[in-house]
Amino acid sequence: MNSNFSLYCESILNVLNDGLYISDPNGNTLWVNKMYEKLTGLGPQDLVGRNVRELVQEGVFDQVVNPDVVRDGKPVTHVQHLSNGKKLVLSGYPVFDEAGELCLVLTFARDITILTQMHDQMIAQRRLIEQFVDSVAYLAQRQAKNMAPVYASRKMAEIIDLLRRLAASDATVLLLGETGTGKDVMARLTHDHSARKDKMFLKVDCGGLNESLTESELFGYMPGAFTGAGTRGKAGYFEMADGGTVFLDEVGELSMLMQTRLLRVLQDGEIMRVGATTPRKVDVRVIAATNRNLAEQVEEGRFRRDLYYRLSVAVVDVPPLRERREDIGPLAEHFFSVYTTKYRKEMAPGPDVLEAFRNYDWPGNVRQLQNVVHNLVITRNPGTLHLSDLPPDIAGEHEDTSHHVPDAMVEEHRPLKAIMADIERDILRKALKKHGSVQKVADMFQINRTTLFRKLRDGESAHSPERTEPADS
How far apart are CA 426 and CA 432, in angstroms? Predict the structure, then answer.
């Protein structure tokens, strides 16, 4: 550096956060500060006296700003790549003397390697997010297709038409029916035809909720509301689905406390987080479903009467599969299409298989049919399926002895009602002996405890009076 540049000025320039490279109008290097040396690994011994053009030719770096600043007399910015892989942004500025002649070029260098890496990572993450969004959209479309109701019966056509009309309103819908009849499909259909179709559809399995955590799961909690609660709190299902639809599957399993809280949501559109002192407004449409007889539970004091009335604004009974046998064939073919596509198998049911399906009662309804088809696709060889491929009970190859009626019972001269009472009593006694729990047996046969005891008692009393046999003609 020339003698007019004092030691103090050098000390000041050496504390700059940016690297500083000083050159003359011819491109000769005059001085670099310590930050430039730190950024590039190139010190005064490597650069001072060297021409910037020569350094470019030697591959020390690929870009300089000196020539452009000298030519235009204006600030210039370039990105420079060093041989060590670093990337610098160069900002060159002209310095003029008292006569207005350009005498120096100051080049400030800033390391943007990390910023560039972050930018590249952001681009990569953006691509991943776009791929994820596309995948979610594809899966949502596929799920919607698989969840679309499949039917051919007039009974189901009437139900679908009713649900589409109900969807236009915001009324609470209560879906009744045996387990496996497809109530979740009906709930999804109602949501998809409503004004909320672009918002969240959130299914809540009330029977699967942890009893001790049900309240926080449904309504959320405040920070530190209980031991183990998160420091930020958490939104419950109703807050998460705000603006959308909450599907409460097996709503009859909710405790009396949760029934009270649910009633507040339906009446006031408010929820109260665990540990909160003020309520929060939510805008959700509630669809509920159950395989229980809620009217009986109300009479037994196990379900709130006011909640039952709130849920019963629009009640839809979904019939079991045995009462709409026209739907069995289309449903079976639909499930075969789904699973053969999934497992890339060429397989189809023969006419005898479809006929056996139509003749079977399907106690597990649509869910059982789906599981049977799934099992056949993954366990049987490709090709056309025949009766021999089916489970014996569905193929009808043996008589179900649990439904066998003894000849002596058929020949009895007794009222049918009394005979049926004996059969019911026998079934209930066997079930009690096997399971050892009155409540479990009552739940299994979908009756209440009072009804169970009455059937056992009536069956016993039916034999106590003396019967009068009718005279032969």
Answer: 10
Phi, psi of 171 (to 5 degrees): -65, 150
User: Which residue's structure tokens are 């005279």?
Assistant: 471
- Chain segment 201-254, per-residue pLDDT in tens: 999 998 887 766 788 889 988 887 776 666 678 888 999 999 999 999 999 999
The whole-number pLDDT of residue 359 equals: 93
Rounded to whole angstroms, the Cα distance separating 215 from 257 reads 9
Regarding beta strands 285-290 and 173-176, do their DSSP bridges make them parallel or antiparallel, or are they unpaired? parallel
DSSP state of 274: B
Task: Give 25-65 pLDDT, tens digit per residue.
Answer: 999 999 999 999 988 888 899 899 999 999 888 888 888 99
What number of H helices and E strands is found in the chain?
A: 21, 14
Pairing mode of beta strands 87-96, 102-111: antiparallel
The CA distance from 403 to 451, in Å, is 22
CA distance 18 to 5: 20
Q: DSSP per residue over 215-266, as a string?
A: HHHHH-B-TTSSTT--TT-B--HHHHTTTSEEEEETGGGS-HHHHHHHHHHH
Model confidence, pTM: 0.56
Tally of residues, the chain: 473
- Residue 419, phi then psi, degrees to nearest 5: -65, -45
DSSP for 280-321, written as a single string: EE---EEEEEESS-HHHHHHTTSS-HHHHHHHTTEEEE---G
Sheet of 285-290: strand order equals 201-205, 245-249, 285-290, 173-176, 314-317
Helix (H) or strand (E) holding 96: strand 87-96
- Residue 33's alpha-carbon distances to 14, 38, 92, 234, in angstroms, are 5, 9, 15, 53
Q: Which helix (H) or strand (E) holds 434?
A: helix 416-435
Burial class (CB in 10 A: 0-12, 13-18, 19+), 89: middle
Helix, strand, coil content of the chain in percent (nearest 5):
50, 15, 35
Do residues 251 and 209 touch, judged by C-beta distance below 8 A? no
